[in-house]
């Protein structure tokens, strides 16, 4: 059946590598557990595959015949453009099942690595989410073309004005002076010289004047400029200095319209992950029960040390007096810069590199962790890594090991680490996960099943993820991982045993440019869980605008009184050539703003590693004090403090007499919330524009959108550029609303 004939309520079978013809509710797939892999590149530009799951109640509908007596009712939200939200219920066999975005297959996404799926049509045509998001294609016109248009319109108005004045004068002359001109035969006048009909004479003269004065408009200018642009494009394509030797790719001008925009960029706004870094995570270090493990240095530490050494040599200073962030210092507070990555000194043979796992420390490898002082906490740490996730395992037949299809590279690196530590995640069903646990170097493997009772998914607002499981002994555990600032606020009084050393280790990891997460757990009573689950199911099956708020409240009720186990540190390596590229951009006078969710220490050290921050550059750090309570007076005091910092910083930049002085602005997300308010946002942006580098750390996706929006308006001289089709791709409805 053609796409245009598909109707709401139809059951559709889609086969491998086909696009979904409408927004579908996944009922079953070729996999026994009802999962499928979806490529959403046409929706969000992401190349990694997404995992979608069907409801357990519809798993049996796995062939055409099984749908003969199938009848169900779907109650869901109205059509809307939010790609990452879906509210609805499936009523089937007198039961109600809550639906989430993980159950929905969106139109324009493609089925991958799955033989077939069955789905029921929810939205079709212009009601589908991709069509709700569609807009007219933007017209990319350069600044010179827009200027030419303005000139042409001005000349056109001038032409019409001159012609109107000329024709009006001719009509007046015809009516009042023409009878006195005997040589024009007023007794037998022609149409153009008839005093009794001056309007006709004026109109004809207007047309004549438009033709005569038409040379005021230089139509040939468009042709001339277009010829010049085509020649420029050919020169760009043949420019040897813009040829990349390594990849063998020359510069390619895909359009000649925007040639003159080259060299006009004065500010670049960039994310960190995937732009400055590779977005390929390696598990490098961890803190368990107050002890730090992992001896390798991160590439950011090495790159920062190299860059600082180069800068100091240029300033004629001694390299041995430089301190490296996150490194140990001698008694004088200084150390010699080391530019080689640390390794395991006890190993003579180099270890075969493992994707997602760069950890080196024999204290935890090959079952040696059993001889540590807190083996029970280490065991729990490994189990949290292996259980608390949403990934799908795939067996690699060549190596015999499992690889993982995860929603984020961080999650895949955690599972790779758990596997190497001896806790291999090997199977997932609709209701359980299976872990192969190896407790000693003897290789004895025990496969354990953990029944998944609830999954509280990660969002950028929650900044944490939890899973509630029942182990083989019948004990109910809540396993949680998330940002340290979120986890630490939810710790029980008896769960803060390792808080001090863990906080210290997290600071060290942040200074080394590593991405950190805290891990915690909680044991639940059967009665407490049953009561909570009843309320949580009511929130999941509710249909309304407050569903997300109800789910958030339900999650907050159970995600408390946690016990801290430790923290992880994964490395996202810098892309090759990033420091050299940023250095050349700085030499060209181009300013760079980096918007990242990292801690301030992490962002500063990455800034040094990628040449965003350089020796001799004066750093302006804008931070907010912690308000005492939530009263208006305390918030007013915080705002006044931030405003005072901004005022002093602006004065310092203006009073600087050295023409070669460079400033770097560093601000965190909490402070940015106040800085972007109406009464001080212009001061903040005026300061940011005057700085060579700007680092906004600990910022949310919504704050990234706001900073980019105001930065564009400020940089364009008051004109916004929403027609460029810019999007931050943060998946947040609140961010989308703020952009609109």
UniProtKB/TrEMBL annotation:
The active site is at 271 (4-aspartylphosphate intermediate). Mg(2+) binds at residues 271, 273. Keywords: ATP-binding, Isopeptide bond, Magnesium, Membrane, Metal-binding, Nucleotide-binding, Translocase, Transmembrane, Transmembrane helix, Ubl conjugation. Its main location: membrane. It comes from the Eukaryota. GO terms for cellular component: plasma membrane. It is found in: Membrane. The chain crosses the membrane at residues 150-172, 199-223. It catalyses: ATP + H2O + phospholipidSide 1 = ADP + phosphate + phospholipidSide 2. One of its GO terms (biological process) is phospholipid translocation. It is a multi-pass membrane protein. It holds the Pfam family Cation_ATPase. Belongs to the cation transport ATPase (P-type) (TC 3.A.3) family. Type IV subfamily. This is Phospholipid-transporting ATPase.
């Amino acid at each position: 059946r053609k796409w245009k004939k598909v109707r709401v309520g139809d059951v559709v079978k889609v086969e491998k590598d086909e696009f979904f013809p409408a927004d579908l509710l996944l009922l079953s797939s070729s996999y026994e557990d009802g999962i499928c892999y979806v490529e959403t590149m046409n929706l969000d530009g992401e190349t990694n595959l997404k995992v979608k799951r069907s409801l357990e109640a519809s798993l049996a509908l796995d062939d055409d015949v099984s749908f003969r007596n199938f009848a169900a009712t779907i109650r869901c939200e109205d059509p809307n453009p939010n790609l990452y939200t879906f509210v609805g219920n499936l009523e089937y066999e007198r039961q109600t099942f809550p639906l989430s975005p993980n159950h929905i297959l969106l139109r324009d996404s493609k089925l991958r690595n799955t033989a077939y799926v069955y789905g029921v049509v929810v939205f079709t045509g212009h009601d589908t989410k991709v069509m709700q998001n569609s807009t007219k294609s933007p017209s990319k016109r350069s600044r010179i073309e827009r200027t030419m248009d303005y000139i042409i319109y001005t000349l056109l108005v001038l032409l019409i004005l001159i012609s109107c004045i000329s024709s009006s004068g001719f009509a007046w002359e015809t009516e009042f002076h023409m009878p006195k001109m005997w040589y024009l035969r007023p007794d037998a006048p022609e149409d153009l010289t008839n005093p009794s009909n001056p309007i006709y004479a004026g109109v004809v003269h207007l047309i004549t004047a438009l033709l005569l004065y038409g040379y005021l408009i230089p139509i040939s200018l468009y042709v001339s400029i277009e010829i010049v642009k085509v020649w420029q494009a050919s020169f760009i394509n043949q420019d040897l200095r813009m040829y990349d030797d390594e990849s063998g790719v020359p510069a390619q001008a895909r359009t000649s319209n925007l040639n003159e925009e080259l060299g006009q960029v004065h500010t670049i706004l960039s994310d960190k992950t995937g732009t400055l870094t590779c977005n390929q995570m390696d598990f490098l270090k961890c803190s368990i029960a107050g002890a730090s493990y992992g001896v390798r240095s991160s590439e950011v530490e090495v790159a920062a040390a190299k860059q600082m050494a180069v800068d100091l040599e240029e300033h004629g200073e001694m390299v041995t007096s430089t301190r490296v962030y996150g490194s140990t210092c001698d008694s004088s507070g200084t150390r010699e810069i080391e530019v080689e990555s640390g390794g395991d000194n006890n190993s003579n043979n180099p270890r075969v590199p493992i994707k997602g796992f760069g950890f080196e420390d024999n204290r935890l490898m090959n079952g040696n962790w059993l001889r540590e002082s807190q083996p029970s906490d280490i065991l729990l740490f490994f189990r949290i890594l292996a259980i608390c996730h949403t990934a799908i395992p795939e067996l690699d037949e060549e190596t015999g090991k499992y690889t993982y299809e995860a929603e984020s590279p961080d999650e895949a690196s955690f599972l790779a680490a758990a596997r190497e530590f001896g806790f291999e995640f090997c199977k997932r069903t609709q209701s359980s996960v299976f872990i192969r646990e190896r407790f000693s170097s003897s290789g004895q493997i025990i496969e354990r099943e953990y029944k998944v009772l609830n999954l509280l998914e990660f969002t950028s607002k929650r900044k944490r993820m939890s899973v509630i499981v029942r182990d083989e002994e019948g004990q109910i555990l809540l396993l949680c991982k998330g940002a340290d600032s979120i986890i630490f606020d939810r710790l029980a009084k008896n769960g803060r045993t390792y808080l001090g050393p863990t906080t210290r280790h997290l600071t060290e990891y942040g200074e080394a440019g590593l991405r950190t997460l805290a891990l915690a757990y909680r044991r639940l009573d059967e009665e407490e869980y049953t009561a909570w689950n009843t309320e949580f199911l009511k929130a999941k099956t509710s249909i309304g605008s407050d569903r997300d708020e109800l789910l958030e409240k339900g999650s907050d009720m159970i995600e408390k009184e946690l016990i801290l186990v430790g923290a992880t540190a994964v490395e996202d390596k810098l892309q090759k050539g990033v420091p050299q590229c940023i250095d050349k951009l700085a030499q060209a006078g181009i300013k760079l703003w980096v918007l990242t969710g990292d801690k301030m220490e992490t962002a500063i050290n990455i800034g040094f590693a990628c040449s965003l921050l350089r020796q001799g550059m004066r750093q302006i750090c804008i931070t907010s004090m912690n308000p005492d309570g939530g009263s208006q007076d305390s918030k007013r005091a915080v705002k006044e403090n931030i405003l005072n910092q901004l005022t002093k910083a602006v004065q310092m930049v203006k009073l600087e007499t050295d023409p070669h002085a460079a400033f770097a602005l560093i601000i965190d997300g909490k402070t940015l919330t106040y800085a972007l308010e109406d009464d001080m946002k212009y001061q903040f942006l005026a300061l940011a524009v005057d700085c060579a580098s700007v680092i906004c750390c600990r910022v949310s996706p919504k704050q990234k959108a706001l900073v980019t929006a105001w930065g564009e308006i400020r940089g364009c001289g008051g004109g916004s550029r929403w027609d460029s089709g810019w999007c931050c791709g943060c998946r947040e409805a609140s961010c989308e609303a703020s952009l609109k």
